[in-house]
């Protein structure tokens, strides 16, 4: 994802976007959030929290691996109350994804 310039907001989603299916990246519009450059910290945090919750919900719904990881940690997108809550979610290391564990998550 690339956002260019302060006055010129351009989003590049690359060739990985699937036709007919909107992804979080495709729905994101830098211009939509341009007002946050002058917003106060409370408003910015509110938007960040909402976007984080949406991203985690999407991830949990599309990935059995992450859905299981979230359940095992006792966390869900509903438990997020601020952007700092991302620290509570399990960290994923390379061996978690390459050891075959992702196939056993379901």
Helix/strand class: mainly alpha
Counting DSSP H or I runs of 4 or more residues, the number of helices is 4
Q: If strands are numbered along the chain, what order do they take across the biggest sheet?
A: 1-2
* H-E string: EEHHHH
Q: First CA to last CA: what distance? A: 29 Å
Shape: elongated
Residue windows where pLDDT falls under 50 for at least 5 positions:
1-21
Radius of gyration: 16 Å
The number of distinct β-strands equals: 2
Q: Biggest sheet: strands, sense, closure?
A: 2 strands, antiparallel
Determine the strand fraction and express it as a percent band.
under 5%
The percent of residues in helical segments reads: 25-40%
Mean pLDDT: 74
Q: Could you name the key traits of this structure?
A:
106 residues; mainly alpha; 4 helices; elongated; disordered N terminus
